[in-house]
């Protein structure tokens, strides 16, 4: 059930937002040196579900929530989230990138975890509200930075016997983040983690749920200790196919002009990947969604990891060890990203920052 907006909530007339919508006023931050970490903002949006209905989204100028010690999310993991960005264009306007897709994905995650999700309108409206209320934290155009938007849904009912929560909080927090690659669009090496799975074949890999990330911390740390900034998971059933990177999807470009990405039941459906596929098709590439065997990685001229945080991370080598033998696949130049992935990256960023016409209607002007 959707709430009826009133003057305290989302139905405020557009003119009420005029102080935000065209403001170029920005917080006093070192925009060019932002990292990818939490920075305090004005506040967050919260909306609660109880007695079978969602209440009004409310803006709260504090960074904490009041949560029962027995809340389902804390004990039984009813916790799902999303990640998207708001970008400032040269004219000062601000756009959220494809929030409707994140709304849809949150509904799918909620279904898998027996949670009550906000409908798409409520989701998008709460994201817009969180951005509007934090307009001074949307980084200025030209800094390469953006406002990261993190919608979170948690089961809040005190629960001891395991069951789905009857109450939920939907929260949208934001924080400004810098460009992922300060030193440029530099290729990195990836390690395939055959000793650990990210998700089970029929498990929760398709849901953006907190537990998936807790489970990937240890293999991620092991990868870093071995000198790899990014790890690649194999399919959890046979350990023979590419699944996805720790927090991004796998994409590969073949010399024959194909854009290949794994078909798997245990990976997150990346919105960046979906968007890149549309752009790749427009560039004349053929999109192939199919299982990709690890021992066929030599078919690729270019490999990338794609996701909201970095758009594309070019991968110049993938390493894996099986039966005591190290296998290494190399793609293109060690120091320079391939031309196809570079073009795709520039096109998507160009659309996000309003430099290239948004012909697909991906930007939701806040
Ligand atoms: C496991 C995983 N795969 C893929 C992605 C990329 O998804 P998106 O492009 O929607 O950010 C993410 C990031 O959200 C992720 O955490």
Low-pLDDT residue spans: 1-22
* Shape call: globular
**Overall radius of gyration:** 21 Å
Please estimate the helix content: 10-25%
> What is the distance, rounded to the nearest whole angstrom, between the alpha carbons of the first and last residues?
24 Å
Order of helices and strands: HEEEHEEEHHEEEHHEEEEHEEEEHE
If you had to describe this structure to a student in words, what would you say it looks like?
The structure is a single chain. The chain has 366 residues and is α+β, with helices and mostly antiparallel strands. 21% of the residues lie in helices and 27% in strands. The chain contains eight helices and 18 strands. Strands 1, 2, 3, 4, 5, 6, 7, 8 and 18 form a nine-stranded antiparallel β-sheet that branches. A six-stranded mixed β-barrel has the order 9-10-11-12-15-16. Helix 3 packs across helix 4 and helix 7 packs across helix 8. The protein starts with 17 loop residues before the first helix and ends with a strand. Bound molecules: pyridoxal-5'-phosphate.
